[in-house]
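User: Fold both of these, please.

Assistant: Here is the first one.
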Amino acid sequence: MANQKILDKKQGIIDEIADKTKAAKSLVVFEYHGLTVAETNELRAKLAESDSHFKIYKNTLVKRAFDTLKIDLKDEMKGPEAIAFSSDEIAPIKVLSDFAKTHPALILKAGLVDGEVADQAKLQELSSIPSREGLLTMLAGSLLGTVRDLSICLDLYSQDLEKEEN
């Protein structure tokens, strides 16, 4: 039987995983086996820029934490896995997806976005969504176009009124 100190330490890690999962708006399970230390540090830095981070846990402890939260990602938790946590729904998915394009050793397995399980296909779909800043820029551009068209119409209308007065 395991020592009580060891069991308490493991329970602490399980609680940590559960707390991070509850607090995160999204998490991504990915395979990192084959990345060098330099590449791993580069990935950590890129994730930190988007207010995200990743940690490597024992799969058995992650499975227990997910069981307590009633999250079914058991099939994805095979082999060396890491989990990226974020307060943003899309940011870690985009960072990991972009990183995977230049580092084939990184493979996105599954995730949890706003409490819903996302498979590889869903993660790929979410990674193609522009960032929040990009979406706001697109919105501002479309609003400026509408305002410009309105100002042109009003200017033409005022010119017509001036011609009618003369």
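And the second sequence with its predicted structure:
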Amino acid sequence: MSADRQQRTIRCMVAKVGLDGHDRGAHVIARAFRDAGFEVVYSGLHRAPEEVVQAAVQEDVDVLGVSILSGAHNTLIPKIIEGLREYDAFDDTLLLVGGVIPEEDAEHLKELGVAEVFGPGTSIQKTIEFIEEHAPDR
């Protein structure tokens, strides 16, 4: 971790996109991120990709973590990537996806620019360490 990173708080948004109504995991992650010292914004349920992008840009987040269990990741995540690019925020935002994502879909999402895909059973500590190591320096 760089000296600059030790002196600033990492800002994260935990987002639920689409019709996915399962938010327990998102709440657990948001709480763990807060406990780790991150500043956390939670989007709430049933957000459109455009809403998530606008909120992430307005909140000037370092990390955008999208929790998706609906199976619509191949449709919704590319829209988020496109939106972040339109706002010139993609290169300054670490994009993470969590949920039940088949391995071939996870690889495809990474090819599109998702930094990492975290599936069921991933330890929260592993996610926190990934963020601490990869969050953009500003």
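The two ends are 13 Å apart (CA to CA).
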